[in-house]
Design goal:
13 helices, five-stranded antiparallel β-sheet, 3 domains, about 350 residues, alpha+beta, single chain, about 10% strand, two-stranded antiparallel ribbon
Length: about 350
């Protein structure tokens, strides 16, 4: 999740200045701030899949990150220009899907191009697009159809022979160590980088529905199960997410809203340049098994939702507001409930469709 801000008029930060952080406001969270010409900064945080907290609320964590004393000395008095969020499909080669089929091919970040060792993705995603374009031209000139076999012989072959693909093979296991812990993950990335991918720290990635603890277990010793049940009932009745109440009870300081940079989540949607969703389309976030959702006490889908588009609904089944959705995709990889058909998939389905998106600037 990130925002673009106008820095205070008296800011001393020079364009080109870069801040990278890790370990705040939670050990697993990364942060960044880049200074641009015109007294503008882009800043934000990464909430990773290995962050084993059922209360994964990117927006409030972003606010706490902004208020770190070292950053706040530069940001106090800044004004929000735009805001947005997205899922980074950073599994890289580990998450590569079927690249081609009859009449289709996959390119870009979602096709596993991201280099998870260097953290780079734009050039790699672009390269996959040019590889497909060259393959399409080759097939058109030869008068061959876009079958799975022909696309594999042209597009996939080009991709496998590319520099980007060779680098992705080196980086493939770089982040496996994060499955065992944050520090282990950092050591694993260093080991992979120093040995050119010959040595790695191993680990088996787990889906959220197999790794995230219950809220009661996560807050054991800090908030009693009885109080959690009371808060859950109150938030359900008010149609509010549970995360703010839990964080308040756990001792997180309140955010002193200033109406400029530190604003409510709803105001961030209004001020951040969100594009209005067109009418006449079906919901693209669907809860396929309401009976399973009714029994879910975690509802990470609500907590993680970047646009407050998913909220408590009737009988415990989350309600979806398409107008608020910014298509970040976070709900898809944060659902903690598995389908009853044994497929291993979760009950939340993110379908192709239209939402509001966020600002072009962001």
């Amino acid at each position: 999740m990130k925002m673009v801000v106008d820095l205070p008029a008296d800011s001393k930060l020079e364009p080109g200045t870069v801040f990278h952080t890790f370990g705040f406001p939670e050990p697993e969270i990364f942060g960044f701030m880049y200074i641009h010409p015109g007294n503008i900064a882009s800043l934000g945080i990464f909430v990773p899949s290995w962050f084993d907290c059922p209360v994964r609320t990117a927006y409030r964590y972003l606010q706490h990150w902004v208020m770190h004393p070292y950053l706040w000395q530069h940001l106090n008095g800044a004004t929000l220009r735009s805001w947005g969020a997205k899922t980074l499909g950073e599994s890289g080669r580990r998450g590569e899907p079927h690249l081609v089929g009859d009449g289709y091919a996959r390119i870009g970040e979602g096709s596993g191009t991201t280099n998870v060792l260097t953290g780079s993705g734009v050039d790699e995603a672009w390269a996959s697009g040019t590889q497909l374009a060259d393959a399409v031209l080759e097939l058109l000139k030869a008068g061959k159809p876009f079958t799975k076999e022909n696309l594999a012989a042209t597009y996939v072959a080009r991709r496998r022979a590319s520099r980007e693909d060779k680098e992705s093979r080196v980086a493939e296991k770089a982040r496996d160590g994060f499955c065992c812990g944050f520090v282990t993950g950092l050591i694993g990335m260093g080991m992979t980088g120093l040995t050119g991918g010959l040595l790695n720290i191993w680990g088996t990635p787990k889906a959220p529905h197999k790794r995230l603890p219950s809220i009661e277990r996560y807050y054991r010793g800090r908030i009693s199960a009885e109080e959690i049940a009371k808060l859950r009932a109150e938030c359900q009745a008010k149609g509010l997410s549970l995360h703010n109440e839990l964080m308040d009870r756990a001792g997180w300081p309140a955010i002193p809203l200033d109406g400029k940079l530190l604003v409510s989540h709803q105001d961030a949607l209004l001020m951040g340049g969100k594009v209005q969703a067109p009418a006449g389309y079906a919901d693209h976030v669907v809860f396929t098994e309401p009976a399973v959702c009714e029994k879910c006490d975690v509802k990470t889908c609500i907590t993680i939702c970047s646009g407050q588009a998913i909220a408590p609904g009737e009988k415990g089944v989350p309600a979806f507001d398409r107008e608020k959705c910014i298509h970040c995709g976070a709900c898809l990889w944060n659902c903690t409930q598995e389908r009853t058909d044994g497929s291993g998939r979760t009950v939340l389905e993110f379908r192709a469709g239209t939402g509001g998106l966020h600002s072009a600037e962001n």
